[in-house]
Amino acid sequence: MQKAAPRKTRRIIVRRSGIHGRGVFATAAIPGNTRLIEYKGERVVDDERDADDASTHTFLFMLDEELVIDGSRNGNSARWINHCCEPNCEAVDENGRVFIETLRAIEPGEEITIDYNLYLEVRYTAALKRQYACRCGAGQCRGTMLEERR
Predict the structure, then answer these.
(1) Are 113 and 82 in contact (CB under 8 A)?
(2) What own/partner pairs with CB < 8 Å and gap ≥ 24 does 134-142 have?
């Protein structure tokens, strides 16, 4: 009788987050420069997404001017990665696929974060910045998930 292959231990898990709702957390130490997970979901043209949802809470990842990955449709755990102004991971676009990779070593129990760096083609008013308020708590928090404009 053959032994079953050893079960691979998960490096990340989804649970309640102090930043916002759910988040993704390391279950073990993860070295820097490590590919963690691919951001998955249906690829849709930006104007096909749910236009009825006026919420700023989405699972959309822009690939280009028209195409987005909608993590709410057949997505995976990556959709729960929260924003932080001092992230420990980054999103890397590789031929239309988005991978989350560590920027530095991550400790067990630490939340996995990326900088959403959201871009909107409108004037960034104080009200808009509040609508996209950041709750990351980082020392260099810019107060919003929107990209900085100079």
Answers:
(1) yes
(2) 134/83, 134/84, 134/85, 135/19, 135/20, 136/19, 136/82, 136/83, 136/84, 136/85, 136/86, 137/18, 137/19, 138/84, 138/85, 138/86, 139/86, 140/85, 140/86, 141/85, 141/86, 142/85
Question: HEC states along 23-58?
Answer: EEEECCCECCCCEEEEECCEEEEHHHCCCCCCCCCC
Average pLDDT over residues 18-29: 95
- Tens of pLDDT, residues 45-98: 976 555 545 556 678 888 888 899 999 999 999 999 999 999 999 999 999 899
Provide the mean pLDDT of the chain: 89
CA nearest 22: which of 98, 91, 78?
78
Question: Do 130 and 143 contact (CB within 8 A), yes or no?
Answer: no
Q: State how far the Cα of 54 lies from the Cα of 32, in Å rounded to an integer.
A: 37
Query: What is the end-to-end Cα distance of the chain in Å, rounded?
Result: 66
